[in-house]
Specification:
By secondary structure, the chain is mainly α. The protein has one domain. It has 3 helices and no strands. The two termini are 48 Å apart.
Length: 140
């Protein structure tokens, strides 16, 4: 991929706003607030990314376990020579498979729910802080 230059690199927005000298506008406070907003978004994205990484890792573990268990069950299934025995074992394999899949889906969805809840809480805290900061700007 080609290295693209940042088109905004030549602008120093902070010094540009500092030189603007708008009465009643605390540029430093606004820049600090925006920096906190960006940091909150980065933190929330990190939480969500870690959640997805945990899910991916767990799905790999589940796939490996399922493959091993399936191989063992198929081997066990082949040892029974009676059609009735095989059908009973097949029914048990299906039942166990469905139960394990349901449990795995619940586990994975719980990891995702937890990470998204944490990310939302971080963003909500920052939003609450922003409202307080706006009130302070107005009071100043």
């Amino acid at each position: 991929m080609a290295d693209q230059a940042n088109p905004f690199k030549m602008f120093d927005f902070q010094s540009m706003f500092n030189n603007a000298k708008i009465p009643g506008l605390d540029v430093e406070a606004i820049m600090a607030a925006q920096k906190k907003n960006v940091e909150a978004m980065i933190g929330a994205n990190q939480i969500v990314a870690e959640g997805y990484q945990a899910v991916a890792k767990r799905q790999i573990e589940l796939a490996q376990t399922t493959l091993q268990e399936t191989q063992a069950r198929v081997t066990d299934l082949m040892t029974d020579t009676s059609p009735e025995g095989r059908m009973a074992k097949q029914a048990e394999m299906v039942k166990t498979g469905i139960e394990q899949a349901s449990q795995s889906m619940h586990e994975v969805s719980e990891v995702l729910r937890k990470s998204q809840t944490e990310a939302f809480a971080l963003i909500k805290r920052r939003m609450d802080e922003s409202v307080d900061e706006i009130k302070e700007f107005k009071a100043a």
